[in-house]
Write a structure and sequence with these properties.
- By secondary structure, the protein is mostly beta strands.
- The chain has one domain.
- Helices cover 6% and strands 46% of the residues.
- It contains one helix and five strands, in the order ββββαβ.
- It has one helix at residues 49-52; strands at residues 13-18, 21-32, 35-40, 46-48, 62-65.
- Strands 4-3-2-1-5 form a five-stranded antiparallel sheet.
- β3 and β4 (46-48) form a beta hairpin.
Length: 67
């Protein structure tokens, strides 16, 4: 079961699976509401959660903390 977006914490790392894409993310800052600035740990690019979920949540949507 995926973690709710409002339970994400700054400085922690998460595995995001959505619509066939798998990304390892680190939460950099909380912007507003359920939107966060995140860093992709594979490419080091910066995104927002809204950008990653812009096209909706697929059947495979999951987000879990990486320990």
């Amino acid at each position: 079961m995926p973690i709710a977006l409002d339970n994400l914490r700054v400085g922690r790392r998460y595995l995001l699976i959505n619509q066939g894409e798998v990304r390892q993310l680190e939460i950099m800052a909380r912007l507003n509401g359920d939107n966060f600035k995140v860093k992709d740990l594979d490419t080091l690019e910066l995104y927002t959660i809204e950008e990653l979920l812009r096209w909706g949540k697929g059947k495979d949507y999951d987000i879990e903390e990486i320990r």
